[in-house]
Amino acid sequence: METCGFVELMHSFELLTRITGDPVWADRCEDIAVNSLPAAFDPAQRGTHYITSANSVRLDDAAKTHGQFDNDFAMQAYRPGVHDYRCCPHNYGMGWPYYAEELWLATYDAGLCASMYAASEVTAKVGTDGTAVTVTEETGYPFEETVTLRISTPRPVEFPLYLRVPGWCAEPALRVNGTPAPLRAAPPCYVAVTRTWRHGDRVELRLPMRATTRTWAKNHGAVSVEYGPLTFSLAIEEEWRRYAGTTAWPEYEVTAGSPWNYGLDGRSLRLLRRSARGNPFTRRGTPLEIRARARRIPNWRADDENVIRPLQDGPVRSGEPAETVTLIPMGAARLRLTAFPVIGHGPDAREWRLVPIATASHTWQGDTTEALCDGIEPSGSGDQSIPRFTWWDHRGGVEWVQYDYPEPVTASAASVYWFDDTGQGQCRVPVSWRLLYRDGDTWLPVENPSAYGTARDTYNRTTFTPVRATAFRLEAHLGDGVSGGILEWRMEQG
Ligand SMILES: [Zn+2]
């Protein structure tokens, strides 16, 4: 997500809170404010990057080309003074100030609402006669679960005090001047305490937090780890290198100094609270850590441009030993794994496919070889809604696409789903094709291929005598005057 977007979403959610009074907007604003927004800054908050990701294992000063975004400059290094980033640096500075302004809201019934929580102080006119009261809020939220409010007022005044109970909090507890107050809450909600407030009155709201996992069904069944409003990420060793900028405004790349390719094994999470000082959105300053059980997934690797590859369907089989890993708040992790695959042990556990590096004899600038093996299923050969690969604007003749594997794989079958935009463009299924493997410096055809189909709207599968190689090439003979393309090309490994 572009860093601008965090600030813009927070601002939109703050306005929606005011307009609708629906606490879900404050929940969503807080979620971004305590997770994604701090994750977008360097620890000193001097610089930001353009794109911030839930899973991000390298922030380098290199442009990426595999269709991540339509920009030709590096988007993940911290580059405070660079014009390329334009919108983000002048937007992100507004995130925290707006948030501070929206912590407290006036209500329609002459009361006051603690909409979002942070150490703060507010002075406001309340009650039927508009008495100016000051409420002082003391809290370490979101790193602590108690919020204490102290009322200063020149005279007793009746007004409703609204407190937001976030949706993740099942069992909030309230005390007024030390006495438990009954609480009927169906979070997310606001609870109102209406009484005649006196100088020195104290309200204590407890929002008990638990370490839990949340499943992301639409992201291959991945899980994230949460504690109250905080989302946690794998703590990856960060190697910082200043490559440009000035001492006041340094530009940094960050690379990983420890493995990151873990899946979570089981749901046992242990929260540790440690004494820490300084900015809690830093590795050194965070007071919270979670220990979790995990196993590595050796086939999960970065692509040839050092970008972490997308998740695959879980649960995932792993033959690696179980380890205890440390998680820290996402906003304190500049490199991070936040969407975790789930390790499986049963018959439903799947192998993680080793994804090859895909290249081609030619690729149209708007398309990408990454589409060949992105696992996104086409709805038909003319599917315009998914990433694709085409040889456009090469027409006729022989063209190829190639998979290179980091280590030899044994393959015995391949399936190809052709792109064909008859009626719209000039790509057609090829006249013919064949599959080759690399043997030393030469390319040899696979032996005994069962078929080389060119059907539209389906996978064309061929089986052949198993062969072990580090590279495979699909060679296509294009029709006269037309080009061609592929939506998905699968090699069956093992
Ligand atoms: Zn921007």
UniProtKB/TrEMBL annotation:
<dbReference type="InterPro" id="IPR049174">
    <property type="entry name" value="Beta-AFase-like"/>
</dbReference>
<dbReference type="Pfam" id="PF20736">
    <property type="entry name" value="Glyco_hydro127M"/>
</dbReference>
<feature type="domain" description="Non-reducing end beta-L-arabinofuranosidase-like GH127 middle">
    <location>
        <begin position="113"/>
        <end position="209"/>
    </location>
</feature>
<feature type="domain" description="Non-reducing end beta-L-arabinofuranosidase-like GH127 catalytic">
    <location>
        <begin position="2"/>
        <end position="99"/>
    </location>
</feature>
<protein>
    <submittedName>
        <fullName>Uncharacterized protein</fullName>
    </submittedName>
</protein>
<dbReference type="Pfam" id="PF07944">
    <property type="entry name" value="Beta-AFase-like_GH127_cat"/>
</dbReference>
<dbReference type="InterPro" id="IPR012878">
    <property type="entry name" value="Beta-AFase-like_GH127_cat"/>
</dbReference>
<dbReference type="InterPro" id="IPR049046">
    <property type="entry name" value="Beta-AFase-like_GH127_middle"/>
</dbReference>
